[in-house]
Amino acid sequence: MPILNILPFVHQMLGNHLKNGDTALDGTAGNGCDTVFLADAVGEKGKVWAFDIQHQAIEQTKVRLESENLLNRVQLVHDGHQHINHYIRQGLDAAVFNFGWLPGGDKSITTSSESSLDALNAVLALLNPGGIAVAVLYPGHDAGRVEARAIESWAEGLPQQEFAVLKYCFVNRQNHPPYVLAIEKLRRK
Ligand SMILES: C[S@@+](CC[C@H](N)C(=O)[O-])C[C@H]1O[C@@H](n2cnc3c(N)ncnc32)[C@H](O)[C@@H]1O
Fold first, then answer.
1. Is there an atom of ligand 1 within 6 Å of 115 CB?
2. Confidence band (pLDDT; 50, 70, 90) for 189?
3. Rounded to an integer, what distance in angstroms lies between the CA atom of residue 24 and that of residue 50?
4. Does a structural domain hold residue 181?
5. Ligand 1 pocket, 23 CB below 6 A?
6. Which of 47, 87, 103, 183 gives 20 to 30 Å between its CA and that of 126?
């Protein structure tokens, strides 16, 4: 099998993990690619929440979901992912955060360390045993570098008895390429 690029790797992880009836979160809906992927993976009995602070992103995601006939299993939330506890009151089987700015949008509107860490902490509390949270980090620009460092150092401090943390990155690519941190909430033995 070839080495997968970052986003195909993320989708493969999520696709292998999710099954019909599961619950999932897209913490950064953006153009809707990940939300559509999750909505398909949880099947007709499943549910997805998708957050974004930009109206444009929520609208774009809605259009994509409608065109795939998947909108009925997704709750779109025009709010910051740091507030997920206001909206989600049940366990999650998977979550994805594709941090950074909206591709093709305003690059000054980007995720930031503090709210990203609040969201990740909230997600870990909501994850069902065996559930996974996957983050794509973009250290190739200044704000992304600060955010990636903060999130990686937070992830390194997670107790290994409770969480398995994987880093997936290309070590010979130029210009600080994006990489993945994947966190699994371990089942109790
Ligand atoms: C890299 S894009 C997401 C790409 C998306 N997953 C896709 O499939 O197209 C990052 C998104 O995060 C959003 N964002 C920034 N801060 C946020 C926050 N606090 N809560 C939720 N979304 C946020 C931006 O508006 C932007 O649309």
1. yes
2. low
3. 9
4. yes
5. no
6. 103
